[in-house]
Amino acid sequence: MAESAEIATTAPLPASRRSGFHTSGAVGLALWAIALGVPAVLNSTWVSVAAIFAIYAITALSEDIILGRGGMFDMGHAVYLGIGAYVTGILNTEFGWPIFATMPAAILLAAAVGALLAAPLIRLRGDYLLVATIGFNAIFVLAMQNNLGGITGGSDGLFGLDVPRIFGLQLASQPAMFWLDWVVLGGALLLMRNLERCELGRTLRYLKQDELAATTLGVDARAAKTLAFAIGAGLAGLAGSLFAVQLSSVGPSSFVFTESVTLFAIVIVGGQGSIPGVLLGTALMFVVPQIFRDFAQYRYFVFGFAMIVVMVLRPQGLWPRRRTAV
Amino acid sequence: MSALLELRGIGMTFGGLRAVDDLSFAVQQGHIVGLIGPNGAGKTTVFNIITGVYRPTNGDVFWQDQRITGTAPHRIARLGIRRTFQTIRLFAEMSVFENVRAGCHLRARRNWWQGMLSLPAQRREETALAERTHDILHRLDLAQVADEPATSLPYGMQRRVELARTLAGEPLLVILDEPAAGLNDAESAALNDTIFAIRDSGVTVLLVEHDMNVVMNVTDHIVVINFGRKIAEGNAESIRTNPAVIEAYLGTEDEDEEAAA
Q1: Is residue A76 a part of any domain in this protein?
Q2: How far, in Å, are A9, A32, A52, B5, B103 from residue B204 at the CA level?
Q3: What residues are paired with B232 via a beta bridge?
Q4: Sheet-wide strand order for B221-226
Q5: ipTM, 2 decimals?
Q6: Residue of chain A nearest B128, judged by CA positions
Q7: If contacts are CB pairs under 8 Å, which of residues 110-139 in chain B contact chain A?
Q8: What is the pLDDT of residues A69-112, one digit of tens each?
Q9: B172–chain A Cβ distance below 8 A for any pair
Q10: Domain residues of chain B, as ranges?
Q11: Which residues, numbered 209 to 238 in chain B, qualify as contacts with chain A under a Cβ-Cβ cut-off of 8 Å?
Q12: What is the pLDDT of residue A323?
């Protein structure tokens, strides 16, 4: 029909519709570029903290796709991080795959498991999904601890992962791993920004606000939610792969239920559907504890208290998404 | 000539309640058809059956001679049937523009990965659909409030936003559930013009309405139901003088008004 003719029209949009996002995008890009210089100025402890931050930030952003944007109560997100880490660990240590070759497999398996789990469950009410994902998290950890198929290494996990190599170059040094993690984080942030602006991102917002109204506009709720779950799980799988590389080992304790709770809390406390909110939440949950290591035993007490205060005073999160993003 | 939409022997039972009973009627292409009846007559149930929210206990719904009974709501939308709601259902946290843009959902043909990678084809499509949304906002005189939060607008305007969102999907049939509810006289009169304009743009209209001013003035054909059964059918003039309608519908309304006074 007139479709092709319409697509050819590229008349400019009103200025109000174009500003704003570009500014925040530029600020974000500048901050990211500055962060790349961390290894030049900070000591090795901080370089590894910053690298771990990047990995958890990717994971938290992936949880945000499911929880914050999709409105699906995924309380087992550490599973997908774990699947990615184990896929990389097993393929590398048992089968000798190069690290980078394991990454697509890590993404795909995590995404497939996410989709398979979500498809029958997303029709359920939020609280049922929550309980089901908790159960799945418990099963996953148990399976890994019990050395499923003789390849997960039981409760000790897997050790001695190779370093990533690209074009004969070894990414073995701490700064090299840091840069790898931050480049992937940059990519993840770009994907999140694009998601915000594309039809899928908007579709999730329609569904979260009024599923019936969205459906009458032609939105296939089940397909959109399953897709969101798969994308979120796949991105977490990639983060898991980086996690295994960073520690050069994989163990079940990194993917237990409390890790899922933390990821869930990051999104809620930071701000659902808000990229800066999720990054801020990640920093508070993972970086601040490194600063207050001496008070480790009070950590969860302080966190618990802080979470209550945030939820009472700022129920939309510390850095809520703008009411009408473009 | 065959009907655009046809209901044949529709029945719907909730528990022991017979909400709709052996209801048949047809909506001809290009018409404005009114479905009227007293409160609780089953009008909204009929809408929910047509739009796939409910699957009828008996009978079938035909769309362009194809049986569509029990088709999922999002597939019904794909066929070109769009609806509004008795209680307005706008996306509360979105602007007027974003709400109307939502109506273009099915026109977005690019895949999710094209969107996530922000490929040129997807960006062109975004621009085109934004333009299209602005056109619709202009048509329904909403351009000046495009960036306002949708639910901050006066009630009558919110109705228009919902209508704009419906029309953005280029439907063949729009189903309006009490479009005049909550409107003042001026807004209600303006609604008549809007409904005519929709019909003149080639879209068939089926509406449920209590406001007799709207029903009698705009419809080509009226179906009257009471207790889930059709009691009369015809043009405005024949309905106005139909004794069964006067007794069942207008009589009831008078009693309502007395009770309210």
Answers
A1: yes
A2: 29, 54, 59, 10, 17
A3: B224
A4: B81-83, B173-177, B204-208, B32-36, B221-226, B229-234
A5: 0.88
A6: A7
A7: 110, 112, 114-118, 122, 124-128, 130-132
A8: 999 999 999 999 999 999 999 999 999 999 999 999 999 999 99
A9: no
A10: 1-80+171-261, 95-169
A11: none
A12: 60
B126 to A197: CB separation less than 8 angstroms, yes or no: yes
In the three-class reduction of DSSP (H, G, I as helix; E, B as strand; rest coil), residue A286 is classed as: helix
Distance CA B3, CA B50 (A): 14
User: Does the beta-carbon distance from A17 to B117 stay under 8 Å?
Assistant: no
Taking contacts as CB-CB distances below 8 angstroms, the residues of chain B near A198 are 110, 112, 114-116, 118, 122, 126
B26 DSSP β-pair partners:
B6
Domain range spanning residue A218? 43-256
CATH number of B1-80+171-261: 3.40.50.300
| pLDDT lower than 70: segments of chain A | 1-22, 293, 296, 299, 323-326
- Residue showing tokens 């419809």: B219
Does residue A60 fall inside a structural domain? yes
Evaluate whether residue A291 is within a structural domain: no
- Taking one residue from A and the other from B, the number of pairs with CB-CB distance under 8 angstroms is 121
Q: What is the DSSP pairing of strand B204-208 with strand B173-177?
A: parallel
Number of domains within chain A = 1
| Cα end-to-end span (Å), chain A | 28
Question: What pTM was estimated for this model as a whole?
Answer: 0.88
Q: How far apart are CA A4 and CA A142, in angstroms?
A: 54
- pLDDT number for residue B135: 93
Q: Do A217 and B125 touch (CB under 8 A)?
A: no
Contact A324 B147 (CB under 8 A): yes
Q: Enumerate the residues of chain A whose CB falls inside 8 A of the CB of residue B115.
A: 194-195, 197-201
Residue B1 pLDDT > 60: no
Give CA–CA dist B157/B141, Å, rounded.
10
Q: How far apart are CA A272 and CA A69, in angstroms?
A: 7
CA distances in angstroms from A131 to A8, A12, A75, A127, A262, listed in the order given: 48, 48, 8, 6, 16
A281 domain residue, yes or no = no
